[in-house]
Amino acid sequence: MATNTECELCADPGGDLLWEDGFCRVVRVVDAAAAAFPGFCRVIWRGHVAEMSSLATNDARHLMNIVLATERAVRRIVRPDKINLASLGNVVPHLHWHVIPRWKDDSHYPSPIWAATQRIGVARPVPANADLQSALNAELSTLTETP
């Protein structure tokens, strides 16, 4: 699979590694923005491609299965009011999905997390990586398709 040494998602895991296979990885985001959104994860495609439509159908299906399993795991562990799924790639043109737990009283609600802060958000417990991994593995164990 193609990599790009100038791409931060090719050169770096992109967070704390929770799970990976030969096609993609799930990481817990550990940057400053993630602190306000405990359980914030990314699903990152291993090869350096920018768009979902660049993937073969089975690969795209596999990636979306991992995104959905990650969403279910985050929902199970942090119990948000809503999950935001985002695949932007404007700054880092490497295919990845953000799985972002949201609460009605978080610092940016109802705006996206990249918008201006609306208020001081409610502090929430930060789940352990082991708890996220366990929930993710449970969700992934229900998948029967392989790419």
Describe the structure.
- The structure is a single chain.
- This protein has a single domain (8-140), classed as HIT family, subunit A, CATH 3.30.428.10.
- It has 147 residues and is an alpha+beta fold.
- The model has no long low-confidence stretch (mean pLDDT 91).
- The chain has a five-stranded antiparallel sheet, covered by helices on one side.
- It has three helices and five strands.
Topology:
Elements: H1 8-11, E1 16-20, E2 24-28, E3 41-45, H2 57-78, E4 82-86, E5 96-102, H3 129-140
Antiparallel strand pairs: 1-2, 2-3, 3-5, 4-5
Describe, in short, the structure shown:
The protein has 147 residues and is an alpha+beta fold. Helix content is 26%, strand content 18%. The protein is globular.
Whole-number total of structural domains:
1
Oligomer category: single chain
- Tell me the Rg in angstroms: 15 Å
- Helix-strand topology string: HEEEHEEH
Number of strands: 5
What does the average pLDDT come to? 91
Question: Given the helix and strand composition, which structural class is it?
Answer: alpha+beta
Question: Which range best describes the helical content: under 10%, 10-25%, 25-40%, 40-55%, 55-70% or over 70%?
Answer: 25-40%
